[in-house]
Amino acid sequence: MSRTNKVYSTEFKVKVVRAYLNGEGSYRTLANQYGIRSSTQLKQWVKIFQEAGSTETFERISAGAKGVKNHLKGKRIHFKSVEEESDYFSSLSLN
Fold first, then answer.
1. How far apart are CA 95 and CA 88, in angstroms?
2. What is the full per-residue pLDDT of the chain (95 aa) written as tens digits?
3. Rounded to two decimals, what is the model's pTM?
4. What is the rounded distance in angstroms from the CA atom of residue 24 to the CA atom of residue 18?
5. Are 17 and 45 contacting, i.e. CB atoms less than 8 angstroms apart?
6. CA–CA dist 48, 63 (Å, integer)
7. How far apart (Å, rounded) are the C-alpha atoms in residues 61 and 23?
């Protein structure tokens, strides 16, 4: 039987991280209290939050790079020369 990953909202993550930083409990206690499967997950959020330095940066990091188009995803392009490859990538940066 497989388990699916649970997705937590950024607001939820901030709430739990702040609870930890305010001394409201240990990683394990807060994970149990808020229904997080692993205290290690909470520990990771706290580490990212502390490295981010602000709630806004943490929210941006937690959201990931959604909406950023990867021009190379799913494409296999073969170039005849280095110059042709260079021209192709130069044209992408202009768009």
1. 11
2. 567 778 888 889 989 999 999 999 999 999 999 999 999 999 998 988 888 777 777 777 776 655 455 555 666 667 788 888 888 878 776 55
3. 0.60
4. 9
5. yes
6. 12
7. 24
Closest CA to 39 of 51, 47, 31, 50: 31
Question: What's phi and psi for 23, nearest 5 deg?
Answer: 80, 25
27, 39 in Cβ contact below 8 A? yes
Structure tokens at 29: 């206690």
Cα–Cα dist 58/64, whole Å? 10
Alpha carbon separation from 8 to 17, 35, 36 (Å, rounded): 12, 11, 9
Q: Please state, in angstroms and rounded to a whole number, the distance separating the CA atoms of residues 86 and 95.
A: 15
In order of 65, 79, 90, 92, the CA distances from 70 in angstroms are: 10, 19, 15, 11
